[in-house]
């Protein structure tokens, strides 16, 4: 009888739990890093420099270029902003006519920086020349490091973890009030709790699908997109604009995370009616459950920041709303339609995921759209980091490689005409 009673209690406890669909697979914690590493490895291969050999200098002479326009690296005087003795042991090496200092425009001033092209034959320069996509991976590591800082900075600014938690909860409730109690409520006719409830009441297969894709569309999906677009973009300037926009959108979000911590719906008190469908049964994703992850960073949504940027790029890449660049040619109509559908469907799919799983509010996506749009117009702000990058390359004795973006299209052309690309950090 005792065992039967215990069984009934367990059954009652299980029955009392609301149905939240299937959880993420426990294998996500080790599978997702493998997926990302596999994507990066494949990207290194497909974006490699064809015909270049790392250990055959006679065949790989001048594997890199100074990605500055010619007038930026010619005719410089020896009186640069950097003392030659700080960078070279030989007094005249910095002023060599073969490797004159670069000229950078920074805050309205011309800054002379060391030209690291003299290090093109160093082994690590040649490795980068063979696999220039390594530079993109370096930028991603910097992004991740700054994201991890937001959690620590917010805790420092708001004294204690308890104070930070309460403030984030207040901000989350304020977002709900703005959406559904202010004069802006006509923009948000469906409450997030009602939207989630629709999936939980009779549509558990759909919420299971969304639960399991929540983490996959974030880091693995975004890395896949950047890897593909590095290969598919008509030239590196186009790719760099997208990457700089996404990076600036990241940093705009990081700034807001630090000074406006916001609790996602899933962490609000139970009376608000939200359930955490993704993290049930401790099936966490390595990308959303690690110690470095800022759990109080709902506003704006980084998921939607990336998705909106990806969708906008698909629309641009379709070529429907613009004149094709000379280097890329005209796409077939069915290809244009596929990119058009993907450009609309992907952001909508991500929006459905983040709201149905109670990880974000509608307003999080609206703010993400605004910050991403502003980031597009201001993406060249990162060009001010070029002098610092030049100095870093000099210190490391490495030459920044020529991007291979657009090489696929150039190889298709019977007559090669180089496309001038902007250099970017």
UniProtKB/TrEMBL annotation:
Residue stretches of biased makeup (Polar residues): 61-72
Sequence ranges assigned to domain Inositolphosphotransferase Aur1/Ipt1 in this UniProt record: 195-317
Biased composition (Low complexity): 73-84
Pfam families per the UniProt record, alphabetical: PAP2_3
Designated name of the protein: Inositolphosphotransferase Aur1/Ipt1 domain-containing protein
Membrane topology classification: Multi-pass membrane protein
Membrane-spanning intervals of the chain: 30-47, 138-158, 213-233, 245-267, 303-321, 333-355, 361-378
Keywords: Membrane, Transmembrane, Transmembrane helix
Species this chain originates from: Cladophialophora chaetospira
GO cellular component: membrane
Localization per record: Membrane
Domain of life per record: Eukaryota
Region of interest called Disordered, as start-end residue ranges on this chain: 59-84, 405-425
């Amino acid at each position: 009888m005792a065992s039967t009673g215990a069984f009934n209690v367990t059954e009652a406890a299980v029955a009392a739990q609301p149905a939240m669909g299937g959880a993420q697979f426990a294998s996500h914690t080790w599978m997702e890093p493998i997926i990302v590493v596999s994507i990066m490895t494949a990207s290194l291969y497909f974006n490699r420099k064809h015909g270049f050999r790392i250990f055959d200098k006679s065949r790989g002479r001048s594997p890199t270029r100074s990605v500055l326009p010619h007038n930026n690296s010619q005719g410089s005087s020896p009186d640069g902003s950097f003392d030659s003795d700080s960078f070279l042991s030989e007094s005249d090496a910095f002023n060599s006519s073969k490797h004159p200092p670069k000229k950078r425009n920074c805050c309205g001033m011309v800054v002379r920086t060391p030209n690291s092209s003299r290090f093109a034959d160093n082994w690590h320069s040649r490795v980068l020349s063979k696999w220039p996509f390594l530079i993109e991976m370096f930028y991603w590591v910097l992004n991740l490091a700054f994201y991890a800082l937001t959690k620590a900075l917010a805790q420092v600014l708001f004294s204690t973890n308890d104070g930070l938690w309460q403030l984030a909860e207040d901000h989350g409730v304020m977002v709900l009030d703005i959406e559904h109690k202010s004069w802006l409520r006509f923009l948000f006719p469906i409450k997030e709790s009602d939207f989630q409830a629709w999936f939980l009441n009779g549509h558990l297969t759909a919420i299971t699908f969304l639960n399991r894709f929540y983490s996959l569309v974030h880091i693995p999906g975004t890395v896949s997109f950047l890897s593909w677009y590095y290969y598919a973009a008509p030239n590196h300037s186009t790719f760099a604009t997208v990457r700089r926009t996404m990076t600036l959108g990241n940093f705009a979000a990081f700034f807001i995370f630090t000074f406006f911590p916001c609790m996602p719906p899933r962490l609000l008190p139970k009376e608000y009616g939200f359930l955490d469908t993704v993290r049930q049964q401790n099936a966490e994703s390595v990308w959303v459950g690690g110690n470095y992850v800022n759990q109080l960073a709902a506003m704006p949504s980084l998921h939607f920041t990336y998705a909106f940027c990806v969708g906008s790029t698909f629309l641009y890449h379709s070529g429907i709303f613009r004149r094709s660049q000379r280097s890329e040619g005209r796409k077939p109509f069915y290809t244009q339609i596929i990119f058009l559908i993907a450009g609309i469907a992907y952001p909508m799919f991500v929006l459905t995921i983040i709201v149905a799983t109670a990880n974000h509010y509608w307003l999080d996506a609206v703010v993400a759209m605004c910050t991403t749009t502003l980031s597009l117009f201001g993406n060249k702000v990162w060009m001010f980091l070029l002098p610092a990058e030049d100095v870093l390359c000099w210190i490391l004795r490495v030459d920044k490689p020529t991007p291979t973006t657009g090489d696929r299209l150039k190889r298709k052309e019977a007559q090669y005409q180089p496309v001038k690309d902007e250099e970017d950090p």
